Amino acid sequence: MTDLVIRARRVVTPAGVRPAEVRIRDGRITSVDSPVLTSSSGITLADDEVLLPGLVDTHVHVNEPGRTEWEGFATATAAAAAGGVTTIIDMPLNSVPPTVDLASLRLKQEAARGQCAVDVGFWGGAVPGNSKDRAALHEGGVFGFKCFTVDSGVEEFPPLADAELELVMRQVAELGSVLIVHAEDASRIGTAAGRQYAGFVRSRPQAAETAAIARVIELAKARDARVHVLHLSAADAVPLLARAQADGVRVTAETCPHYLALSAEAVPDGHTQFKCCPPIREESNRERLWQALAEGVITSVVSDHSPCSPELKRLDTGDFGAAWGGISSVQLGLPVVWTHGSRRGCGLSEVSAWMAANPARLAGLPGKGLIAAGMDADLVAFAPDEEFVVRPGQLRTRHRLTPYEGQKLRGVVRKTWLAGEPVIAGQPAGRLLART
Question: H-type helices in 42-161, by residue range?
């Protein structure tokens, strides 16, 4: 076979951003060498483009089967590819059935087959009553197990009580797996109703996250379990995580673009497209999350893409208590993070680590997230200085409601390659991935 060559004046490599020639054969990178910029063979990126590794988004709710009217594999993965995301790991809810046993995993895999524009893997669920199914799910290829310590919002995926949380910690340790946790303490969450965003934020205080995270850390330490805190919004929990990491507890954490870009002070009352759980918090909190990223306490930035049918957002009433909590952003994560990160002095190497290399490491995807010999040739041509205004018509998700509508963002994905082949609309070529 003839090698494909992609060269650029700026390539994000593990050694930094440098001119390079990336050689690809049979879907994998064979070498990353100094470029021959005068060569006419292969593909040479424009001077304003940077070659990035394909992003890995380990927090995506596709919702198919069962709630495909909210989102599905075809639309979710098309949006991912348009945003430079070449691998997603699908959450075990909000599909029906949820991915809580081997049969439901097989149903989800069958639903995804032949539809995916990017590579797709699956998390398993840890819910009350499925402890005997978790080993089979692990052997079936899930990348780890997700649980809630608070109501998930859908009745078919209930939270774990404390004793059940301790049991799953022991199981994931024995399996050599990872437990990913939506960590909020239900006893500290109040009732929200009405159009006032400030009231919704008060109903889910930082203390609800910090209390739950403290318990997760305690159990992880006792069981020597590997745990990961999902969608961290409460900066008050950062010192807890930093101390645990320094003490050798195997705990990591992620945050999301909306917690890094938006602030409670700027959310208009009644604009329920901004509702997510845990909530978008104050500007001062947002800056502390950026600091935790810079210090490495938070390691990943992923979308928590959680779409729904527009009527479930209750835009007609603007009631934050009644609206579905979730933000649809798998296509916009890279420009959102780059826009706000570059203002704070972050470079593309840092953004690439947060959104590609570190999520790949969390999920155990050794061939993803880096531009280096031996890795999958999942690549993105990114124009970091080009600006655009977010319009719903640009989005490829099933429903196009977004809190970023009208915002000017910096950074445009111009082309995406999956295993060395360009991603082409309407020609799904993504693979279904399993833990190895």
Answer: 73-82, 102-112, 134-139
- Sign of the alpha-carbon dihedral angle for 293, 366, 360, 331: positive
- CB-CB contact of 150 with 119 (8 Å): no
Average pLDDT across each block of 10 residues of the chain; the chain has 436 residues. List them in order. 87 97 96 79 94 98 97 98 98 98 98 98 98 98 98 97 97 98 97 95 98 98 98 98 98 98 97 98 98 98 97 97 96 98 98 98 98 98 98 95 97 98 94 95
* Helix-then-strand count for the chain, H and E: 12, 17
In the numeric block, the tokens 């994998």 are attached to 28
Please tell me what DSSP assigns to residue 109.
H
Per-residue b/e over 86-114, b at no fewer than 16 CB within 10 Å? bbbbbbbbbbbbbbbbbebbebbbebbee
The candidate with the shortest Cα–Cα distance to 326, out of 410, 258, 262, is 258
> C-alpha 278: how far from its chain's center?
15
**Dist. CA 171–CA 75, nearest whole Å:** 35
Strand segments, DSSP code E, in 231-353 are: 251-255, 300-301
